[in-house]
Amino acid sequence: MTLTIRFQVSAIDSPAAGGAGDGCREWAGGANAAQNRPTDALPVTVRQRATDSATIAVKVISATRSVAMSLISVAFASIRRSRVLPAARTLAFAISVAAALGVLGGAHPAEAATPTQRERLEAPVKAVADQRLTVDTPQGNAMLPVYADHPVDKAAPDITRVFIVIHGTLRNADAYYASGLKVVEKAGAVGQGTMVVAPQFLTRADTRAFSLPAPTLAWTQEGWKGGEPARQPAPISSFTALDALLAHFADRGLYPALSTVVVIGHSAGAQLLQRYAVAGHEGDALARAGIAVRYVVANPSSYLYFDDERPDGQPIAGGTCPSATEWKYGLKSAPPYVASQDVRDLETRYAARHVVYLLGQADTNPYTHFIDRSCAAMAQGPYRLARGLAYFDYLKKRHPDDLAQQVVEVPGVGHDGLGMFTSACGLAVLFGQALPQSCPVVAGTAPDMRAAGQ
């Protein structure tokens, strides 16, 4: 059958805008999506001209995932600042078609992984951090493995800046720690006085493989990303573990010269970090001690929304994707660490926190790198760049005059943590330097953000 969809477009991929020579552009979704970026071209044999309207004819030959993904990409392409914004109806249609075709199921991200990906997720880590941080809580006492380039139990009077680097879904803190060291090395003199720390959120498969002591913290594969209670040795949230790590650096006896803590997360680490920036406690405690705290959230698969609205400007339709408003995509059924706090306080505090969303302009492949393709994640956008830009638009709408955050895009970089953080844009964000003009910025709405032109 043939579906004809009409929607408004203007000045997209016209010859004047550098599009195809005849004012048309085609893109076919599928395995080669990485080479055919959906942000630069419209999907599924779409011919569009620089006129007030366009007709998209889509031949639905079979109920394939690529068709649904392509339809959604049409709508989210308009989120880019270089494009017009009347995509809400297209997005709503795309998601409804996808739901009808059954390609946006509610599978858990881990369950949606391919066999090869699942094996990698479930396999024990290759290395465990060599230092331990004590985590004392009412639920019990435990040990969190950490990498650090200075003993965490020794005074460090020369440290002025701390980078806390959160690993990705494979729990390979060793690789992220090494990346942090490379970032400091590349920064040269600017990086002097920086301590690099990488906590490791293990699973029980990891603790068994390395015969780790019973007090070693371990979560489920997905649980650590969302602040869920640990499975051993006590039900301690991964957010509580981060609280303990940040509180450690508020100790002026150990770090008398410390002025800045930068918490950095890429991919799954950014998922954890974004939720922690919403609900975490110790960032404010550091600020009260005169230590500035900055959260750098880079290319996560999804974000925490505060209500039922999603990027199409409409609430999630009841029953179409119940998980879209549940934790970690929404606040329903949140873990105890989060549920014990007032929802309004969470959002107000989050809007005031110094969060930078570092987004790779080439992170537009909707099929690889363990991207969350559950219906809850797809309701936020088809790929990571679109999801990040849409989320920031959502925050600006909810906070028209008090959002102390910003988006910084990294040209030419996709889903590559080291590439993101060692780029000129990434280094400027991490070390609090002036951003190069080549780094596109979307400013928050707080007066100081506008005054700074950021």
Please describe what this structure looks like.
- It is a single chain.
- This protein has 15 helices and eleven strands.
- With 454 residues, the protein is α/β, with parallel strands linked by helices.
- It has two domains: 100 residues, no CATH class; 332 residues, Rossmann fold, CATH 3.40.50.
- The strands form two sheets. Strands 3-4-6-5-7-8-9-10-11 form a nine-stranded mixed sheet, sandwiched between helices. Strands 1-2 form a two-stranded antiparallel sheet.
- A hairpin with a 2-residue loop joins strand 3 and strand 4.
- Helix 1 packs antiparallel against helix 2.
- It is globular.
- The N and C termini lie far apart (49 Å).
- The N terminus is likely disordered.
Structure characteristics:
454 residues, alpha/beta, Rossmann fold, 2 domains, two-stranded antiparallel ribbon, 31% helix, AB_hydrolase_fold
Helix fraction bin: 25-40%
Structural class: alpha/beta
Number of strands: 11
Distance, first to last CA: 49 Å
Radius of gyration: 22 Å
InterPro entries: AB_hydrolase_fold (IPR029058)
In short:
The chain contains 15 helices and eleven strands.
Topology:
Elements: E1 2-7, E2 54-59, H1 65-77, H2 88-101, H3 115-122, E3 131-137, E4 140-148, E5 161-166, H4 173-187, E6 194-199, H5 204-209, H6 238-248, E7 260-266, H7 268-279, H8 282-288, E8 292-298, H9 336-339, H10 343-352, E9 355-360, H11 375-378, H12 384-398, E10 406-410, H13 417-422, H14 424-431, E11 441-443, H15 447-452
Parallel strand pairs: 5-6, 5-7, 7-8, 8-9, 9-10
Antiparallel strand pairs: 1-2, 3-4, 4-6, 10-11
Helix pairs in contact: 1-2, 6-8
